[in-house]
C-alpha cells in the first residue's frame, strides 16, 4: 500500500464548516414572524428605555439560538448608529448544567477586560458575585442584555431570574439597565418557576414553531450550495433530508445532521454525489446521536431518574412505581456524588417530563381491592443508548 493519505484528493465538500453545529448563518430564512416578534420585544432599547425581559421557547433545532444571535447583532449595530440609543452590551451564557454562581461569575468575566483577573471559581458567595457584576455594569454604563440560553438547565433559575429584573428597583444598579432573554427547549420550564418570577421573565414571550418540509428545504438548499462542490449533492437528497426531519422533529439541526452525515457516507464510499441512499443510511447514525443529545438536554436529576428506570429495565423489574424508582435513583445519585432530591413529588415530576418527552411510558394501575390507583413506568428508548449517553456526559463533567 502507498502512504495512507496519498490517494485522498477527492472530497465532495467545498466548505464543510457550513454544515457544522456552530456555524452562524448570515441570513435567517423562514422565521419572519419570530423576527418580527423579537424586533418588537427589543425595540425599547433603541429609544433608551428599559429593556423588556423575554422568554423564547420552542423545540430543539428550530432556530432559537441562531435567530437570537442574529437579532442581537443587528440591535448592537443599530444602536451604534443612533445618537439617542444607549450603548448596548450583549452577553450570552449557555446554562448547560451550571449553577447561579457559575452564571454570574461568567457574566462578570465576560465584562472584565483581558488585563483583569478572572472572578474566582470558588470561595466567594453568590451575593458577592452579584455585587461584583452590578458594580461592573454601573462602571461601564448603558444597557445590558443577558442571554441565558438553555436556561432550563440552570440548577436554580428562580434565584437568577428574580434578581436581574429587580436590580434597578432595588438600587443595585443606577447607571445601567438590564434585560434578560431566557431561552428554553421546554415550555414547561415556566411551570417550575415561582409565580413572581414567571411574571417578570415572561413579559414578552416568543414561540418558535417546528419547520415544515418546505421551510427546511429552503434552509438546506442555501447551506448545501455553500457546503458542497458543484453537483456533489443531489436535489432529491436535500428534499429527503427536509422531509424526514419535518416528519420527525421539525428541527433544522436534524435536517442538517442528516445532510452532513449523508455527505460523509458518500465520501467514504468513494461516490461522486450524495444520493437518497446515503441519506437513508445516515438515518440510523443520526438517530443514535439524537438520543444522546436529547438526554443531554435534561436536567441532571432528570437524567438520573431516567438512568434509574433503565437499570430497573435491565433487571426486568419494570414497569415500576415511582417509589421503587426513587430507591434506585438514590443509589444512582450517590454513585455519581450528586445530592439526591428528597421529595417523592419531585421524582414524579421528572417522571412526568420524561414521559412527555417520549423517554418513558406510563400506565395507570388500579388496585381493585384497596380501591387505589397509581402509575407504573417503563422505558420507551433503548436502555443501552441511555447508559452510553450517561457515560459520555459524566466523562465530559470531569
Ligand atoms: N431559519 C434558519 N435559517 C438558517 N439556519 C437555521 C435556521 N433555523 C435553524 N438554523 C440552523 O439550524 C441549526 C439549529 O438551530 P439553533 O438555532 O441552534 O436551534 P435551537 O437553538 O432552537 O435548538 C443551526 O445550525 C442553525 O444555524
Ligand atoms: Mg439553542
Q: Mind explaining what this structure looks like?
A:
This protein is of the alpha/beta class. The chain folds into three domains: 32-208, P-loop containing nucleotide triphosphate hydrolases (Rossmann fold, 3-Layer(aba) Sandwich), CATH 3.40.50.300; 212-294, Orthogonal Bundle (Helicase, Ruva Protein, domain 3), CATH 1.10.8; 298-397, Winged helix-like DNA-binding domain superfamily/Winged helix DNA-binding domain (Arc Repressor Mutant, subunit A, Orthogonal Bundle), CATH 1.10.10.10. It is built from 14 helices and eight strands. The strands form two sheets. A five-stranded parallel beta sheet has the order 2-3-4-1-5, with helices on both faces. A three-stranded antiparallel beta sheet has the order 6-8-7. Strand 7 (360-367) and strand 8 form a beta hairpin. Helix 9 packs across helix 10 (276-296). The radius of gyration is 24 Å and the shape is globular. 39% of the residues are buried. The model has no long low-confidence stretch (mean pLDDT 92). Bound molecules: adenosine-5'-diphosphate and magnesium ion. Adenosine-5'-diphosphate is lined by residues 23, 25, 28-31, 58, 60-66, 219, 252-253, 256.
